[in-house]
Here is the input.
Amino acid sequence: MLKVHEINTYYDQSHILRDLSLGIEKGEVATLLGRNGAGKTTTVKSIMGIQPPRSGSITFNGVEISGMRPHKISKMGAGFVPEERRIFPSLTVLENLNFPVWGRGEEGWGIEKVYEFFPVLRSRSANKGSELSGGEQQMLAMARILRAKMDLILLDEPTEGLAPLLVRSIGTIIREIKNDRLTILLIEQNTRFASDVADRHHILYGGKIAFEGTNEVFVNSPEVQKKYLGV
Ligand code: ATP
Here is the structure.
């Protein structure tokens, strides 16, 4: 579904991604792992057209998307939940959920399904976005993307700073998204969480993918985890 082929991405003169290639299959949960500053967010921003690569190719459902504007890529069915949790602070939770995301005009999860999987949003539905805790804002940002009918969901560190109970809820939601046959690319620092939810992992190191393998191979490769992740 997603093929990234030898992309090179820069911030001005800084060359961050170096001939990076990866592929994601439909219906899988794949991760991007790596130490701080390895380039995980930059990879996702390259895919979404926010920090476009200077060279290389990215195809999504067979269409070349590198060079397209971010909203166009969203409209094709790729939804990005950034680390900074983009929600509307002055709108209520319900208004946030009903505010259209750059989708393809098709309905994704209904409000009832959102409330079933994010019960905290039901109880906070009349509260403004700004009144939510960090964890609640994360839930709302994810829920907004799920309201639109997306094929691919890119999550940038959804568990960061969350209490263990909320981390477990995010795990449940990721499994439900997978049941819906949606595809997920997940950036994670929490290796344990990543191996609980993902089918396959990619480790970024030196601006490219240093390791790619199934969860089973990853879990049984402590030397890989130590070398590239320091765990
Ligand atoms: P983290 O887990 O810390 O978010 P990451 O793996 O997502 O790390 P990136 O955020 O992609 O890493 O950053 C990769 C490199 O690019 C880092 O060296 C970072 O300092 C640099 N970088 C990121 N954003 C910018 C920017 N807007 N301008 C210049 N350099 C940047």
Q: What stands out?
A: The chain has a mean pLDDT of 92. The radius of gyration is 17 Å. Residues 11, 14, 16, 34, 36-42 surround adenosine-5'-triphosphate (CB under 6 Å). The first helix runs from residue 40 to 47.
